[in-house]
Amino acid sequence: MPSSTDPRENPVRDGSTAADDASGADGQQWVDPLRWKALLVIAIAQLMVVLDASIVNLALPSAKTALGISDADQQWIVTAYTLAFGGFLLLGGRIADYVGRKRVFIIGLIGFAAASALGGIAPTAAFLFGARALQGGFAALLAPAALSLITVTFHVPKERARAFGVYGAIAGGGAAIGLLLGGVLTEYLSWRWCLLVNTPIAIFAAILAIPFVRESRATDRSNYDIGGAVTVTAGLVALVYGFTKAAPHGFTDVSHWTEGSTLAWLAFAVVMLVLFFVIENRVSNPLLPMRVLLNRNRGGSYLVALIVGIGLFAMFLFLGLYLQVVLGYSPIRAGFAFLPFSIGIILGAGVASQLLPRVGPKPLMVPGLLAGAVGMVLLAQLKSDSQYFSHVLPAMIIISLGMAFTFIPVSTTALHGIGHEDAGVGSAVINTSQQVGGAVGTALLNTVAVAATTAYLSANTDQGKAALAVALTEGYTRAFLVGSVFLVVAAILTVTMITIGKDAAKEDDDEDDGKINAPAVHVG
């Protein structure tokens, strides 16, 4: 039976046939007429993944009371999700490449909906932790599939820039939206709706994905890198868990870094990740081909994403604590206080997506990172009695605009020159960099904050309880200052490692790697 002549009805596989599928009879590149509808579906899915890492933060007190969760165990409501998400991302990206990105995308949505429902009806703490881990596992399938689908759906440089603008706005503003939504749902409904709200949205997105999203997969699926899958998953889980375990969970608790169990987890992570790279250099069909990492621009983007994660992600934690603990904001008021950050990201992403094809990534990334550092320095000037509109809001707007000019070119540059064969795993690496960076940054900066708070309290014992708000602010501001240093380091790496400019953004990918025969992937 002859195959359909409509390229949208046939899965795109990599290699020369993909180029044929994406080109018309006259040699002109074929453009998917449903690409913008596909982007809508991808955006809905990505928003759920991003905001679910933060949506439960403001619901923690209510969930603790309802399920009898102890202070020592409360972190698992967040950690169970991030641990599974960060640990399985790379494996999820390769599964998407092999099984089919659309198929894995839909499986991820349905699984995420089911896991969210289970979390929403959780009768015990252990049940909730397990549901959150299941959410993270399906998110690890969903996130790389979503990003790689943008890569294989949009072939025109300006359109791809707009698509990544949408993705970048969601990636940057999703956490703040999660805080706002979590505050509203907790205040007016129940903490359980912070999880239950995902179920109808995910099912709706899965239904839309069936007609609107085009299937694509890697051609060579004859061998599976089992050794690589086992070692990298074990290594990433151990790494994220080790840093999470090291993070202080009290005002004076900074000793976890030197505990034997923490060091053992981190040592195990190093061994597993080293073994993973040894395996990847020896097998014929690696889970993570070294060509993905060793390209200078892609490798630089992954490194920048990691360092930005270290410097920035903990900002939401500390600023949220400052607003609620020091300034006395309610959960819903704290959530609305983050709304300008989301607005700034969305507006900045629109501008960045227009500029990217014209100026290239570096002229956006460097000023964006430096603006983010300036905003963090401004937050480092906060006092225990600072005003939101005069001190917090200006810094928040500067950071949001700076990150909009960072996330979009980082995402696009990270996939520049990559073949459709590796689109899923390349997307997974950028997500993994951000997740691991967030875990490392939260642990490191939380240690900095706790140490500064403890030192202030020790030096001002005569002030009694009045010193606590000042001491906490001292810790938060010290963490903001250290975070700004990481953003400056990321700017320096951008200057030294990112070499592609606006001309390269308009070239076909095969001019970058020399191996790409699939529909062209452009930076812009």
From TrEMBL:
One of its GO terms (molecular function) is transmembrane transporter activity. Its main location: membrane. GO terms for cellular component: plasma membrane. InterPro entries: EmrB-like, MFS, MFS_dom, MFS_trans_sf, Sugar_transporter_CS. Residues 1-26 are annotated as: Disordered. It holds the Pfam family MFS_1. The keyword Zinc does not apply. Residues 38-502 form the Major facilitator superfamily (MFS) profile domain. It is a multi-pass membrane protein. Keywords: Cell membrane, Membrane, Transmembrane, Transmembrane helix, Transport. Residues 1-12 have a biased composition (Basic and acidic residues). The keyword Aminoacyl-tRNA synthetase does not apply. NCBIfam families: efflux_EmrB. This is Unannotated protein. It comes from freshwater metagenome.
